[in-house]
Amino acid sequence: MDLFAGAGGIAEGFRQAGFTVVVGNDSDPDACATFQLNFPDATVVHGDIRQQSVKSRILEAARGADLVVGGPPCQAFSQVRNHVRIIDDPRNSLYKEFVHIVGEVMPAAFLMENVTGIDQMGFREQIASDLALGGRYEVLPQVIDAADVGVPQTRKRLIFIGVRKGRGVVPPTVRQTHATSLLSLLRTERRGKVRYEAQELDDLLGSAAAAALRDTNDLSIVSAAQALSDLEVLPSGLRHDSLLYASLPEPQTAYQRYARAGAGELLFNVQVPRMRKDTQLRLRAVPPGGNHRDLPERLLVRNITGEKWGQENGTGKLSRRHYYAYRRLHPDMWSWTLNTKADCVYHYGVLRSLSVREFARLHSFPDRFVFTTDPRTGPLPGRHDGGPAHSRYRQVGNAVPPLLARACAEAIRETLEIMVNRPELVAA
Asked: Hey, which bits of 71-155 come out as E strands?
């Protein structure tokens, strides 16, 4: 069962590892529509898990589930005082519901995902204690970077894996390449021209990681170009949201073959946003791998061509909140962490934004996973403002990368198989 499931990133990763998804729950109707489209045999429960009717439907659908997974929002972690337990803070009621449902279902194992800021604020042990349910579970917290498990994007997450005590097993450690600590982009400037290049931070291990990154048949470390090069032909401002694979180049890398597997004849979610003239001028000055710091002073003016947009800040220049929007991917390195905005990163080779499909590729969703929205128009309970296009970017940006979830799922599956093969421990 997948709680706070969003579009289904965790569920997709566990499905790839051989699990069957029986139920997914989220408060966002658009995310639920995507989940239902991609998991047609699962029960999808839309609504606030704190409502008893919603919770009852979830529990009824998930009878006998071996695993509970999810990433509950925890709004109050940055404000909570040391003498207040996280689970008792009313602002963390969604986190409390996750803990309570684990206690209600008592699965063989569970996985809880959240941001690493929780770890940095010193709540790791308190959360592990809550999830242990008075000693009924053994819990192992670990930080995993998505780029270290084959996702073409750096995205650190704090993962709590718990297994029932008395079964003769312990929570597994998820295997990682640690490429993010061995490789980085180096900025150089010669004769006024800025370049970024991948560099090794360790002579021996860094060299091996760099070789794996360059190898287009190696799925352990994947670059942006290895994920996206077959989609480079998508034009800026493309309005059609599907096209025939036959109109695209053949897959050029192992990752592209992974992405296309089982997708059929059509590729979906390929619309590309239009760009303002000001944005085009700035991006021409940003090299692949670069950002706003590479812009000359003349391009930091708020309105270069006189085209008005957004709120003015009174300075006549870009404000700090705009800086994140002028970043270009580097073809030979994984992507920065994506957020929920279409302009959080731009293509490395052509002057354009990324389509939702390219967002999804960088997030490790396979092409057969299609993003949609609830067909009902207007405000709905749990729906976020911005319209269908923004919702699809938001669904991807908020998701757990499936290959990160898959790495966890494979480790958990090995543990569960030990339980199954040792019935005397299960009986005990």
From this structure: 109-114, 137-145
